[in-house]
Amino acid sequence: MGRPPCCDKSNVKRGLWTAAEDAKLLAYVSKHGVGNWTVVPKKAGLNRCGKSCRLRWTNYLRPDLKHDTFTPEEEQHIINLHKAIGSRWSLIAKQLPGRTDNDVKNYWNTKLKKKLRKMGIDHVTHKPISQILCDYGNITSLPNNTANHFGPSFNNNNSTTFVPESDPSSCITGLAFTNMMVMNPMMESQDHSSTSTLPFGFLSQFQAMGQDNVSLQPHFLNEVTSSCSSSSSPPATDLLSSQCHATAQVVTPSSSPFNWSEFLLHDPFSSADQLNKHQEEILHGLVSSPANPAVGNGIQSQPQGFEVGSSSSSAINGGQGLNNNLPDDHISSSLSSFVDTILGQDSEMRAALFPELLDGSFDY
DNA sequence: AACTAGAGCAACCGCCAGAGG
DNA sequence: ACCTCTGGCGGTTGCTCTAGT
């Protein structure tokens, strides 16, 4: 029944690869090509797991890989693509010839996130921190019919009722609301890594930014957190805590546990559903379909003037050296339309939710 | 010179969809 | 039809190097 395991994981070598191992793997793949990775270590005389061999090959030994540092053009391209499609590193890497998903991921985590932070930009949403705070502040002040956009899943099966309360003057309410969302024990029960499920990444951003750029102090956030996640009385002097308690309430009948996954996956906006569907279709086209000439020929290329967002900025000026096969204008149009489509529908969503914020779109 | 903190990066982990037996 | 494995992916860990004290 089934296949035999690829290797005895307790008896294979792990950790860094030696030059001798690299040479064996390189020699084998050069001669036989890549096929079934489970047999590669045996045939190549390596005491490694096939998966480890595959990773070593794809991330390091492949002859078409670049090992030099990322260029400013590549950097900007990563940022733009991340803004458009998020942390789908393999897709992003496919746009950067000679780069692996691991390269891109590492570069993002070690360099670009910090760079964006220093610019005061949330690395998840690619929006200014201040705008995100105001977005959430406005969420809490939305009229009931608008707020109900958040509600359908909450209200399904009478499991949960989300009751926003108004505080039109405060951006901080947004933060408090988010902390409530993040630290709510109910949520934690669904996902113990709740901080990674932040709808936005700015909580960590605040912590990372420390005390320089924001008047909120880490301990301040902690107090909010604790007061929001427990039924104890908040410190009277803690503005955020009181805001937290005053801003939103989640009523959860204990007999019917609320499913956050369903809430997060369910999108009450049909346009957003269409957006997701469309985005998936486009991404599918982006990936690797040999039938798609834009993919096979040029999608690994840098589009000229590729720019996410409505700005006409030409921070990426043509991506020379990245484009191998297609004319720049061809790539530019295919990728730009892809991004434009996403951003256009994003704007529609924002128009529905935050009409007053339409003027605040941010571009690099 | 010794120690520490942070950066950079290679490798591993765990999950998932699809395929093999 | 079912079970298990493979290949691919994103997230995370841990090692090495370097700069600062």
Automatic annotation (TrEMBL):
<protein>
    <submittedName>
        <fullName>Uncharacterized protein</fullName>
    </submittedName>
</protein>
<keyword id="KW-0238">DNA-binding</keyword>
<dbReference type="InterPro" id="IPR017930">
    <property type="entry name" value="Myb_dom"/>
</dbReference>
<dbReference type="Pfam" id="PF00249">
    <property type="entry name" value="Myb_DNA-binding"/>
</dbReference>
<dbReference type="GO" id="GO:0003677">
    <property type="term" value="F:DNA binding"/>
</dbReference>
<keyword id="KW-0539">Nucleus</keyword>
<feature type="domain" description="Myb-like">
    <location>
        <begin position="62"/>
        <end position="112"/>
    </location>
</feature>
<dbReference type="InterPro" id="IPR009057">
    <property type="entry name" value="Homeodomain-like_sf"/>
</dbReference>
<keyword id="KW-0805">Transcription regulation</keyword>
<dbReference type="GO" id="GO:0005634">
    <property type="term" value="C:nucleus"/>
</dbReference>
<feature type="domain" description="Myb-like">
    <location>
        <begin position="9"/>
        <end position="61"/>
    </location>
</feature>
<keyword id="KW-0677">Repeat</keyword>
<keyword id="KW-0804">Transcription</keyword>
<dbReference type="InterPro" id="IPR001005">
    <property type="entry name" value="SANT/Myb"/>
</dbReference>
<feature type="domain" description="HTH myb-type">
    <location>
        <begin position="66"/>
        <end position="116"/>
    </location>
</feature>
<feature type="region of interest" description="Disordered">
    <location>
        <begin position="303"/>
        <end position="323"/>
    </location>
</feature>
<dbReference type="InterPro" id="IPR015495">
    <property type="entry name" value="Myb_TF_plants"/>
</dbReference>
<feature type="domain" description="HTH myb-type">
    <location>
        <begin position="9"/>
        <end position="65"/>
    </location>
</feature>
